[in-house]
Structure formats: structure tokens, C-alpha cells
Design brief:
It is built from 15 helices and seven strands. A hairpin with a 2-residue loop joins strand 6 and strand 7.
Length: 469
Amino acid sequence: MTTTALTAPARLTENHPEWLRIKAAATALQALQVQDGSVPDTADHEAAAAQVSTICTAVNALAPAFPHDARYLELLVSDFGRWAAGGFGVPDFLDSLLAFQPQQHRVNGLQHLVVFPMYTQNGSSSRLVEAVLIEVIWPEFIAGLEDGEYSNKLFVPIRFVDFTPGYNTNSAVLFPETVAVRETPTFTWGAIFADREAARFRRVLGAAADITRLELPAEAAEFLENQELTQETFVMWDLIHDRTHMRGDLPFDPFMIKQRMPYFLYSLEELRCDLTAFRECVKIEKDEEAASEARRHAKLVQYAVIFDRIFRFAITGSRVRNYDGLGGQLLFAWMHQHRVLHWTDSKLSIDWDEVADVVVELGARIEELYWRSIDRPKMAHWLAAYELISGTVTPNPASVWAKGPGALPLAGPPRGLTDQVLDDEFPLSMFYEALEKKMRPVIESTAGITGSSDTGSGAAGDTRAVNAG
């Protein structure tokens, strides 16, 4: 539930001495831990115990600043104590994790002190002790949307105040499933760092617009100057995206949890959720009864979805089964082939009066694929998904899949089909190859970025047109 009576206590800064003690002790502990979170070398146990003691003392000192997290912080100290007393084996912080329920207190500006042994997605793959000081982002118009048609009780948008090294990376989520526990609980919340999403978007958009000579609409140009506006836009986008994963006419398990399937199916699922957010924001923008701030941000979400997908997603990360990258490539090619996006005379332009209908149409094609999949065998669904994508994005010339069903081992188990998918089944186009070279230093510079970072639109390195050199 959303607690409305609670107000944010006095704000802690990243320079608070007790926070700095926690941050330093957690960082020192990380150097003693191995991937599963344990401290196997008994020679390190005395040092580990000293760092745990420092963390517990500082957590107790800070607890009065977090009355809404009192039980969690109490159990956190107990979990640390039990871990130390047990000889620093594989940590188990289930008790404190179950007591941490940030979704119950979605109040703008409310802070949380989060300390767990955990991995960080797109950051560290080891369950090291990480500490994060965070602040909830919950503007009034978002509360209104969530209380109405876009209910998502698990969603917690946040911003960084400070963090340990595991978050000095590309990680922009705080998920309970990353925490070291003895058994898997039912997860009741998921937090997304909207400030990091917004800050890296602003930096990438500024550079990409410069490189491609794209003239931004006046509303979209505000992104480059206004971090708060941008992060609120991302909160609205994420609110609708996140709830979409389990809504609609879906295959039995649309997120394909613990299943070995071709990576391009993940591409379609993530893109489906983004395009649902896009479609819903088109609807909100046109709704004269909607709150003015909701309508304003709804228009901005549409710009954000397009720009983040075609400028950052498509060229970020390796070319090994990059499902978000493929989703960006698909959106760009779809817009281009439907003649609302143009690359002419080394200049990018978009027909903004017509683009919404074209983007919504792509979302409808994916939804039709999902609707029909309920009546299809698994392999038939995979083939139909491949046909949808390959009808717009050109497959790798070496692809077996591109040769059609007759070339694939359909008589065997589904794994045989998955094994035939190339790591880079849909390579970058010539346009994207050139853009990636120009944008690489800019994208790399966004690791560890936050809303308080220098997020000016100037790009690192040469930002001349895509076809230059």
C-alpha cells in the first residue's frame, strides 16, 4: 500500500559520518569476500569481524533517521551478527530482507539505508556486501496514475544519494532477488534508479543528436537541460513498462524465466512493454480529463522511448545475444521502413506528426504474435517471432534460421533450435556501425552516472556526422 501520512525525515547527505563509516567498512569487506559472499580464509575473519562491527554500530546510530525501516534495520544488525558468529560462510539475510518493504512507503523524498550482500545487475556478479543510500521519487502525478488505471504496487522509483563500488557501474536497479538468502521468498517490490536512467539518457541523447544533426522538438530539447523533468518522465515510463510484463494475451511464461530460449524472444518482450508504455502515453496525452502534469509527461515518455531505444539500446553492450540492442534496431528499422524516420544528406529527421501511429502499429504486431501464440506449439511460436523480426531487421548472412524451417532441426528438442541462433543473429546496419564508433566513448562515460553527475550534452571525442571517417 502507499502510506500517505508518512513524511520524509530530515535528509541525510553522502557526507554524513556514519554513512561514510558504513560505506568504507562495506568496501573493505568486499575485498575479503569471494563470489558466493563468504569469507573463506580464516586469517581474514578478524578483519571481517571488525568491519561488521563498524557497520552494525553505524546502522544503530542512523536508525532514528529511518523510523519507517526500524524493524528492517534491527534485523539487519542481527543478520550481520549471525553471519560473523557462524564463521562468515555463505551469508543469509532473509530475515532483514523480508522486513524491508519500501513499496509500503512511497513518499517523495523518503530515504532508505540499504545494506545487503548482493550482486548488482550490470555491475558485480558476486554477492558482496553493498551499501546504498537512496531516496524515493514519487511526484503527485505518478501517485495519481498508480492509484488509477496504472496500479503497480511493487514499483519503487528511486534516486542515488551514495553507493559502494558495486553500483559504480551500469546497474540501475535494486531488486530483492539479488540478495543472498537461504531460500527464495515471494518478492514484493522492485526498485529502479530513475535518476541514473535519466542522466545517461540525457548524455547519450545530446551526443547522438549532435552526431546525427537531429533537430530535437522543443519539448524533447528540455531533456538536455532538466534532470528532474527527465527522471520523472522515466518514472512514468517504468511504471507502465513494469506492470506490462504480466498483462495482456501472453505466452504461458512471457519472461521465459529459467527457460533456454532464443534471445530474440526477450527482445520482443522488452520492446512490447516499452511500446505498451508508448501507446498508453499517447492515450493519456489525448485525455482532456487527465492531470496536466500526467499529460505533459505522457508526451515526453513518447520521445524518451524512441530516443533511448534507437540511440542507446541499439548500440550499448556486446553483440553476444544482445536482446535490448536488437529491440532498438527493430524500432529504428521499422520507423525507417515506414518512412517516418529519414537518414538523408547525412542528417536524421523524424516526422513527429506521423510517428505515433507507426510506433503503435509495431506494438500491435507484437501483441498479435502473442495472442496467436497461445494456440501454437513452442517451436512454431519461435519461428513466427523470428519471421516478425527478420521481416524488418536483416539477419546475419551466415544464419541457419534465415534459411527457413527446412534448414532447422525441427524434429529434435527445442534446444537444437536455440543452438542454431548466432550470437549476433541480427548484426548492426552500416548506419549503426558508424554511429556506434562515434558514440562508444559517450556510452562508456555513463557508467556510474547519477542525477547529480555532470550530465551536460557535450559528447566525449569527435562528434562529427555519422558518415565522417
